[in-house]
């Protein structure tokens, strides 16, 4: 029998989906987990839904709820991916982070392609309003958080 454990989570905001995406449990030894669980209006949490691949944005910790998940959800088979863009406008350099929980191996170019498309494709902008298509720095990493 699977054990249940509590984990922070967010519900997909897209119509017809409403799937629950599990977030990492905050751990003070890992700043990424703290950042994910403490979104603000200026630095919102962006989640690419594990099922529908569409983007939901959460701008405050009140949008995160705690739910029970089976322990299998903690296994290394469901890593969380961080896809990060850095604005290429000179003097800006703001980061835009998109996270996605997935059971599959996501090749870096696929993850970046989907994250950019979900952010608006060629119209995707950094928080300061510069077009991200000018940006050169982008990357994807995954961890079993
Ligand atoms: Zn969804
Ligand atoms: Zn910028």
> Kindly state the mean pLDDT as a whole number?
91
Element pattern in H and E: EEHEEEEEHE
* Helix share, percent: 10-25%
How many distinct folded domains? 1
Tally of contiguous helical segments: 2
Structural class designation:
mainly beta
Radius of gyration: 15 Å
Q: What strand order characterises the main sheet?
A: 2-1-5
The total strand number stands at 8
Bin the strand percentage: 25-35%
| Ligand kinds | zinc ion
Indicate the overall shape.
Answer: globular
Name some characteristics of this structure:
about 140 residues, mainly beta, three-stranded antiparallel beta sheet, about 30% strand, binds zinc ion
What can you tell me about this protein's structure?
- The protein has 145 residues and is mainly beta.
- It is built from two helices and eight strands, in the order ββαβββββαβ.
- It has helices spanning 31-36, 108-119; strands at 4-11, 20-22, 45-48, 55-58, 65-70, 80-86, 95-101, 137-143.
- The strands form three sheets. A three-stranded antiparallel beta sheet has the order 2-1-5, with no helix packed on it.
- The structure holds zinc ion (ZN) (2 copies).
């Amino acid at each position: 029998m699977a054990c249940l454990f509590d984990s922070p989570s967010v519900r997909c905001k897209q119509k017809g989906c409403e799937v629950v995406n599990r977030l990492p449990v905050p751990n003070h030894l890992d700043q990424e987990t703290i950042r994910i669980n403490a979104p603000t209006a200026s630095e919102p949490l962006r989640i690419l839904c594990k099922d529908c691949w569409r983007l939901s944005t959460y701008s405050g910790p009140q949008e995160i709820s705690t739910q029970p998940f089976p322990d299998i959800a903690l296994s290394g088979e469901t890593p969380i991916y961080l896809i990060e863009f850095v604005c290429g406008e000179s003097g800006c350099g703001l980061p835009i982070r998109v996270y996605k929980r997935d059971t599959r191996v996501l090749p870096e170019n696929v993850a970046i392609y989907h994250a950019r498309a979900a952010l608006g494709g060629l119209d995707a902008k950094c928080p300061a309003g510069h077009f991200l298509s000018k940006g050169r720095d982008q990357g994807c990493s995954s961890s079993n958080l």
